[in-house]
Specification:
alpha+beta; 6 domains; 26 helices; Topoisomerase I, domain 2; DNA binding; zinc; metal-binding; six-stranded antiparallel β-barrel; four-stranded parallel beta sheet; EC 5.6.2.1
Length: 917
């Protein structure tokens, strides 16, 4: 029977069900070949010939396909309908050439959804492998190899701690680093807004904002100080106000188009908190189950039959008023028509999320999102009325505006509304009935609650003139009918995975199939961390980015990377030759590589230090040199790196001056350097910073005391606020509590690698609060230790259910209670009790039989007997123990090699490594 090959076993199972017993469907389990990770896999001297290698895990899958082809030489390649899927089919064909006889029938089929209709229609329209798509894959794979394999070693040698670089990943990292530096360079600007609570003649209240003053329209920063805001507040409170105009305008909102890969990842991040990788993994499983169309696409058009099915579903579920007169058509924005597929949509529009009852939580939530977006995309627009009310004083010196919105028909919003990354400030407030020419009365005490809350938050109150009251960030008039609020401009927000994908799409960097892996890779390399869903660059990421900008600026350029992506698209369209694109790229890239061959680490650090100088050494308030060390006032600050790859600012007078600080101070706080906290018992107590963080030290290192007492600062303690008393307490740990009331053994409290603890002999028990280490008393310590014993923590042996006596070979026989039922224990042998035998009824003979049977299955355990009671029986079984002798000899060999291996690893790092000390 014909052999059909797809990527995954789940997909194979679904397709085999549709095709029936006339076909044999097998899985390749993804790519079967790749470039071996060694020099020369892409031969730049021989027209970029590529040497492919079958992965070890793929050999058995290839063998299964070859075996199947012995019975029928009809091969149908049915991998995914994109560039990557075309490449997998090409690799399969190349790897199977030796198994295909002359005249073998090989064809390629693609389908956008794994449904019976889509699969059977695709099988009726076979084609050959699309070579331009394969060429585009070859070019992309070669480019990624040439950049990664040649640029990464440069980073390893010239920048300690750097891991690797990638063609697109490095550009994505630059986006995050650039944004972080924008945030750090941002200077907040103050401005004020003035508001009033007004009432209609009928007593209905509404809010209005001051928009003009002294006949002039107010811009954002026209009220820049509290003094200006106070004057504006007085102007509003001292005038009669009247409604000058009321304008109500109809408005509508059209639905969003259905999902493509990038918009699906963005919405999954916003609404479900899913990272790009998790989103695509869940989508892959939905696709393979036949529930959605192919999930790697840059197209937003929908098949005509799917549009009509969506309209039928809307009519059935929501009624005709939610159905527009004609279907909605969305223009495909794909850069390359050959790679444009249908949007991501359900394969069955009537299969609403509540009907499917998916068990996997991530798949259920993602399908719900896809179904709602698809259905909403074909629904009627939402209709609303937006009202603008202009209020003015008789002398036109004061003008206020009130805006509101009333929903007349919810339309597609009944099903779905797209999430927002940041507040867009849309005004959805409702307004009462307001008539032009009517009086607008100021409402007393309207802002009393806001004033109380502002005062309760604490802080310095704004100075208020006569007739007004001030609170932190707020001014109100005495009647509390109007208020002035203080604002500060905000820095640009850090990227989320959603906004990062959106930005990459805007710049033309990467493609749908690569977004998830790009964002994941830079996190896996520890170049970026994710905190509260925001992407923050680590020091390693900053250094790598600045290094690449300094020595390889073209290859982290947004325009260059986007243009290269366009060329790859042109290759897939058949408009460019892939080897020519590679030739032009390599000619310039190899020259850039040669330019870094003579660089030394110190030279690289100096260059990065200069490039980052405005960021690392901002101007001082007193106008002094920002590079002068604040601790010794003699050395200069410069950039250093540690063996761990972290970067920090240190003093040139090291080791005499051990001042250090991180590249950027967290939350705008002043960095902490080495400082003397005071004297205790004739010793100087100092706060210092080492490679593992801040610590306190008693005295200084000397020939007599090469390692003075030290103690790390516990987690949760602020090193900047540490005082002498706290430092002395830390250096005095472990703290003796007293002898245990039962055995008299000393109980101590201290802080170890696993956190705060109490210790009794060799037994430890953790305590939750670091501060309790200094206050815990005897009763509490005994309680904590007893609780640990009951829980059976580390080192707490469980009590036997029954003691059976001595084994003939020595050692006690015990009956123990286990997770899976009672068992009999002797030495290292554990034998489960039969179900019909209880611990109380077990005899010694039965126990010995169970132990012997278990030991026969595990002879290695049986040889490890207790040293006690060397009986004649034990002596008779000595031959089994002889096998242990050669094991000891063999075990010594790898142990002896370990030091050498460590030395070799240290030598392989290469170059000068600057330690922070």
């Amino acid at each position: 029977m014909p052999v059909v090959v797809v990527e995954s076993p789940a997909k194979a199972k679904t397709i085999e069900k549709y095709l029936g017993g006339d076909y044999r469907v097998l899985a390749s389990f993804g790519h079967v070949r790749d470039l071996p990770p060694k020099d020369g896999s892409v031969d730049t001297e021989n027209d970029f010939d590529m040497k492919w290698e079958v992965a070890a895990d793929s050999r058995k899958h290839l063998k299964a396909i070859k075996d199947a082809l012995k019975d029928d030489q009809t091969l149908i390649l049915a991998t995914d309908p994109d560039r990557e899927g075309e490449a997998i089919s090409w690799h399969l064909l190349e790897a199977l050439q030796t198994s295909l006889k002359k005249g073998a029938a090989v064809s390629r089929v693609t389908f956008n959804a794994i449904t019976k209709t889509a699969v059977t229609e695709a099988m009726a329209k076979p084609r050959q492998i699309d070579q331009p798509l394969v060429d585009a894959y070859l070019a992309r794979r070669a480019l990624d190899y040439l950049v990664g394999f040649n640029l990464s070693p440069v980073l390893w040698r010239k920048l300690p701690g750097a891991k690797s670089a990638g063609r697109v990943q490095s550009v994505c990292l630059r986006l995050i680093v650039d944004r972080e530096m924008e945030i750090e360079a941002f200077k907040a600007r103050e401005y004020w807004s003035v508001h009033a609570r007004l009432a209609t003649p009928g007593g209905e209240e509404y809010d209005a904002t001051l928009v003009s003053l002294a006949g002039k329209r107010l811009d954002r920063f026209d009220l820049a100080t509290a003094e200006q805001a106070a004057m504006a507040l007085s102007a509003v409170a001292s005038r009669d106000l009247k409604v000058a105009s009321v304008a109500a305008k109809p408005a509508s909102r059209n639905p969003w188009p259905p999902f493509m890969t990038s918009t699906l990842q963005q919405e999954a991040s916003r609404k479900l908190g899913m990272g790009a990788k998790a989103c695509m993994s869940a989508a892959q499983r939905l696709y393979e189950a036949g529930l959605i169309t192919y999930m790697r696409t840059d197209g937003i058009d929908m098949a005509p039959e799917a549009v009509m099915a969506a309209r039928d579903a809307i009519k059935a579920k929501f009624g005709e008023k939610y159905l527009p007169k004609s279907p909605r058509m969305y223009k495909n924005k794909a850069k390359n028509a050959q790679e444009a597929h249908e949007c991501i949509r359900p394969t069955d529009m009537m299969a609403s999320p509540d009907r499917l009852k998916l068990t996997a939580d991530d798949q259920r939530k993602l399908y719900d999102l896809i179904w709602k977006r698809t259905i909403a995309s074909q629904m009627e627009a939402a209709r609303m009325e937006r009202t603008t009310v202009e209020i003015a004083s008789p002398d036109d010196q004061v003008g206020l505006r009130a805006t509101g919105q009333v929903m007349l028909f919810d339309g597609f919003l009944r099903v779905y509304d797209q999430g927002r990354d940041d507040d867009e400030g849309e005004d959805g407030a409702r307004l009462p009935a307001i008539t032009q020419g009517e009086a607008a009365r100021l409402v007393s005490h309207a802002f009393d609650d806001e004033m109380t809350k502002a005062r309760d938050k604490g802080g310095d109150a704004v100075s208020a003139p006569a007739g007004q009251r001030g609170a932190p960030g707020l001014l109100v008039n005495d009647a509390a009918s109007s208020a002035a609020r203080q604002h500060f401009t905000q820095p640009p927000p850090r990227y989320t995975e959603a906004t990062m994908v959106k930005r990459m799409e805007e710049l033309g960097i990467g493609r749908p199939s690569t977004y998830a892996s790009i964002v994941t890779t830079i996190q896996d390399r520890d170049y970026v961390r994710k905190d509260k869903n925001r992407l923050i660059p680590e020091d390693k990421g900053r250094l790598v980015t600045i290094f690449l900008l300094k020595y390889f600026p073209r290859y982290v350029s947004y325009d260059f990377t986007a243009d290269l992506e366009t060329e790859l698209d042109e290759i897939s369209a058949g408009d460019r030759m892939w080897r020519e694109v590679l030739g032009r790229f390599w000619k310039d890239f190899s020259k850039a590589l040669e330019g870094t061959s003579e660089l030394r680490i110190t030279e690289v650090l100096e260059a990065i230090d200069d490039a980052l100088a405005p960021h690392l050494y901002p101007p001082r308030a007193d106008g002094g040199d920002p590079r002068i060390c604040p601790l010794c006032n003699a050395g200069r600050l410069n950039l250093k790196t540690a063996r761990s790859g972290g970067a920090f600012i240190g003093c040139t007078n090291y080791p005499e001056c051990r001042y250090t600080r991180p590249l950027s101070a967290p939350d705008g706080e002043e960095p902490v350097g080495d400082r003397v906290l005071g004297m205790d018992a004739g010793d100087q107590i100092s706060l210092k910073t080492g490679r593992f963080g801040p610590y306190v030290q008693r005295g200084e290192a000397s020939e007599e005391v090469p390692k003075p007492p030290r103690s790390s600062i516990p987690k949760g303690w602020d090193a900047a606020k540490l005082d002498l008393d706290q430092a002395v307490q830390l250096l005095a740990l472990p703290r003796p509590i007293g002898p245990h009331p039962e055995d008299g053994v000393l109980i101590e409290a201290g802080i170890g690698r696993f956190g705060p603890y109490v210790k009794h002999g060799s037994k430890y028990a953790n305590i939750a609060d670091v501060d309790e280490v200094f206050t815990i008393g005897m009763n509490r310590a005994v309680e904590v230790l007893a609780a640990k014993q009951v829980r059976g923590g580390r080192g707490a042996a469980a009590a036997p259910l029954r003691e059976m006596g001595e084994h003939p070979d020595g050692g006690p026989i015990q009956v123990m209670g286990g997770k899976y039922g009672p068992y009999v224990k002797w030495a290292k042998v554990n034998a489960t009790l039969p179900r019909d035998v209880t611990p109380e009824d077990l005899t010694v003979d039965q126990a010995l039989e169970l132990i012997a049977a278990k030991a026969a299955k595990s002879p290695s355990k049986a040889t490890k007997k207790p040293a006690a009671k060397k009986t004649a029986t034990a002596a008779a079984k000595k031959p089994a123990a002889k096998k242990a002798a050669p094991k000891k000899t063999a075990a010594k060999k790898p142990a002896a090699k370990k030091p050498a291996a460590k030395a070799s690893a240290a030598e392989d790092t290469g170059g000068d490594v600057i330690d922070e000390g």
